[in-house]
Specification:
By secondary structure, the chain is mainly β. It contains 2 helices and 12 strands, in the order E-E-E-E-E-E-H-E-E-E-E-E-H-E. The protein has a domain of 174 residues. Strand 8 and strand 9 form a beta hairpin.
């Protein structure tokens, strides 16, 4: 048993003889390790003709010790053991002999249909449609028809509110904490193995059957306490708004802070303004909410050029 990097486990199921067919007398299914020469005509084994046997023709090699891939005699072409120093067939030295090629187990391949060009065509057509309908723009002459503005001032009150959070995120000072178990995340847990049988040519006339197993995992929910609680917070309870036209912006008068401390106390919260330009292209008046700087840049009646979506006619406010 071996455990290569990546967690894949390999269990050896034993060594078996490769087979070869004699090209001289047409004898079939000779044993790759036992029959270095054809027992019928004496022709040397052709190591390039070795092949994996069917399950019915498998011959197991007992107590096999792998000493290395065979080497091919440079004089007579006979494959010899990696331990041999001279060819057992012709006696030539094997000092410069090269290792024989290994056989790969080829599995029948299903005919593949290529849908790549169809996928590319669909993607290109979809991209063109998106560009034509949503991205394509054109420049249109417009006149600034007016300026609008809206201002808002939040009024906040220090009051008790109900909030929710995971237990480790519940803030200090929370009251009436009530929790339930709820899935917060997931984790990978072992869920058996996916195994497949492989046959590896050892190059010495034998092959090894290996059961190769890859760990399989599944996703499992991880529960945690999800809590509701009461806590005192500054909370928006009212808003003071004003609207108008023109370039003069005003804000609603703000009330004086209350003298009260703790719950029930009130204060002025964040201020927010929205600046809107009205643009007339001669057919329609369109509006854009823009920054204060952009809003002040244009005067009423000024002629400008802006971009609109070619398909929908909607104004591209970022072009102002």
């Amino acid at each position: 048993m071996s455990q290569p990097p990546g967690g894949v486990r390999e269990d050896s199921l034993g060594h078996y003889e490769m087979l070869w067919d004699c090209a001289h007398c047409d004898t079939k299914r000779l044993l790759g390790k036992t029959h270095r020469h054809c027992p019928h005509c004496g022709a040397p084994q052709d190591e390039t003709k070795r092949y994996f046997p069917s399950d019915a023709d498998k011959v197991k090699v007992a107590d096999h010790v792998f000493t290395g891939t065979d080497r091919k005699c440079g004089s007579c072409g006979t494959p010899q053991s990696a331990k041999a120093e001279h060819c057992g067939h012709c006696g030539a030295s094997l000092g410069d002999a090269r290792a024989v090629p290994l056989v790969s187990e080829q599995k029948p391949a299903r005919p593949k249909r290529s849908y790549g060009w169809i996928i590319v065509l669909v993607v290109v057509a979809f991209g063109f449609l998106i560009w034509f309908q949503c991205i394509r723009k054109k420049t249109v002459a417009m006149q600034v028809a007016g300026h609008r503005w809206t201002t808002a001032i939040a009024i906040e009150e220090f009051r008790e509110v109900t909030e929710e959070a995971w237990r480790d995120e519940v803030p200090t000072g929370a009251r009436a904490v009530s929790c339930v178990r709820k899935q917060r995340s997931t984790r990978s847990v072992p869920d058996g193995e996916d195994c497949r049988l492989e046959r590896k040519d050892k190059g010495d006339g034998t092959f090894e059957e290996v059961n190769k197993c890859t760990p399989r995992t599944r996703q499992e929910g991880v529960d945690d306490d999800f809590c509701s609680f009461q806590i005192d917070r500054w909370t928006k309870v009212d808003e003071l708004k004003q609207e108008g036209r023109g370039l003069t912006v005003t804000w609603a008068p703000t009330p004086a802070p209350t003298a009260q401390v703790g719950r029930g106390a009130r204060r002025v919260g964040p201020k927010q303004a929205v600046y809107t330009l009205e643009l007339d292209d001669g057919k329609n008046v369109r509006t854009c909410d823009v920054s204060e700087g952009t809003w002040k840049k244009y005067a009423d009646g000024q002629q400008i050029k802006a971009q609109v979506r070619a398909a929908s006619g909607s104004l591209v406010c970022s072009s102002l």
